[in-house]
Amino acid sequence: MAKNIVNDSLIFGMTFGQTRKLFFDQCWKLNNQKIINQGSSNNFVEYQLPKKKGDSLNSPITLLFYGIFNKEKIMTGMDMKFRYVAWSLWNKSLQSDKLVPVVKDSLKTWFPGNDFIVIPAKKTKGEIHVKIDGNRRILIEPITDSRTVDVRIDDLRYVLDKIN
């Protein structure tokens, strides 16, 4: 942040600072192009990640995402959830702890820059993976569910505004 580096890009051309209306308009267009779908319970947008070459698992990955908006309906972040489509309780290779490295790899590809660092979580057992590039902070939250890896992307300019 001290270097005044601004990274405002998210996924599908979305950016920090855009309006909620623009977020919905972009989702509508992507849905009409059959790139995304409405997620379950209408709480998230659903996207099936393309399978990577050399991926030994036969299960595709689902990404659920939704913008985080402030009182002025400006996007200040994004919530994401990743899970293997073929997840099952008894299939240990498709559990969320096995998915974390895949998610980290995807996020580093989508958002190049610094690496993730690991911080012990204070309130819950587990680890938080954090990546900060200028104003963009990416958190891979501690695993609380064997199926889902939760990710939050925040614009630190808005987070710091709340504190000051």
Description:
This protein is an alpha+beta fold and 164 residues long. It has helices spanning 20-32, 96-110, 156-163; strands spanning 37-38, 45-48, 61-69, 75-84, 117-120, 127-133, 136-140, 149-155. The chain has an eight-stranded antiparallel sheet. A hairpin with a 6-residue loop joins strand 5 and strand 6 (127-133). The chain is globular. The chain starts with 19 loop residues before the first helix and ends with a helix. 20% of the residues are buried.
Q: What's the total helix number?
A: 3
| Main beta-sheet annotation | 8 strands, antiparallel
The radius of gyration is: 16 Å
Cα-to-Cα separation, first versus last residue: 15 Å
| Relative strand content | 25-35%
Average of the residue pLDDT scores: 90
Entry summary:
The protein has 164 residues and is α+β, with helices and mostly antiparallel strands. It has helices at 20-32, 96-110, 156-163, and strands at 37-38, 45-48, 61-69, 75-84, 117-120, 127-133, 136-140, 149-155.
Top keywords for this entry?
single chain; alpha+beta; 164 residues; 3 helices; 8-stranded antiparallel β-sheet; globular; 8 strands
Task: Set out the fold topology.
Blueprint: H1 20-32, E1 37-38, E2 45-48, E3 61-69, E4 75-84, H2 96-110, E5 117-120, E6 127-133, E7 136-140, E8 149-155, H3 156-163
Antiparallel strand pairs: 1-2, 2-3, 3-4, 4-8, 5-6, 6-7, 7-8
